[in-house]
Design goal:
25% helix; five-stranded antiparallel beta sheet; single chain; six-stranded mixed beta sheet; globular
Amino acid sequence: RIWYAGIGRNERQAGAVTTFKVHGHSFAYAAIGNLTNMNMRHRAGPKKPGSLGIRVPADYETVLRNLRAAKADFKILSCHLGVERKTRLDAGQRLKYERAVDFAGVDLLIGHHPHVVRAVQRRKGRVIVYSLGNYMMRGARDMTPLPDTQDYGLFGRAYLNFDPRLGRLAVRAVEIVPLTQMHGVSRPLRGANGARRVRVLNRVSRQSVDAQAVRFVDRPNGTAIACFPGVRGKRAQRVCGRTARK
């Protein structure tokens, strides 16, 4: 089954939170975008289908309030925002995304739209990915000729454990796979090529979110891992390896 959010027959449905369960744990998911470059004709109304706009303050607050009210072990927000091909954050973007964590209790915020990878931040034990870049966009621009800050995308995996002290699921590790050829059939960047993009990401993260930047440790196959305190579970400990024991 595929769960979705961020669009509806009216503004109430467009700003609603989707809830579901996986392995007995409850998840809350919401999404908001930029209305096709803020074309307000695409914005949902009381009796008009569409989506809500992240650059419309009232719309974003609606989504955050709905997430705040949701009862779930883990909350996810998807945001479509950012100047294309810019690795630096948009003005006010950090405050906007951090509010999702601080006010709505979002555990994982997944950003996209700039077509390039942006910072990864850990705040209050929760994770903000400002942009994963492109994944698979058939017929889109070939990013390969661009500088190595812009020529790759990311595939990510978050490892979760239930924390009885917090009463919710928590992100204990994040694994990333740098990608190339996202305009056709994406494939991993192996070895040194992957490691170089991991170093680029770490640098971009430090420049954007300073001390809250997630630091990924690259591995020989080109993938990378970031492990956080409290790693539990055989799978998470296996992928973390030595990092999990530090």
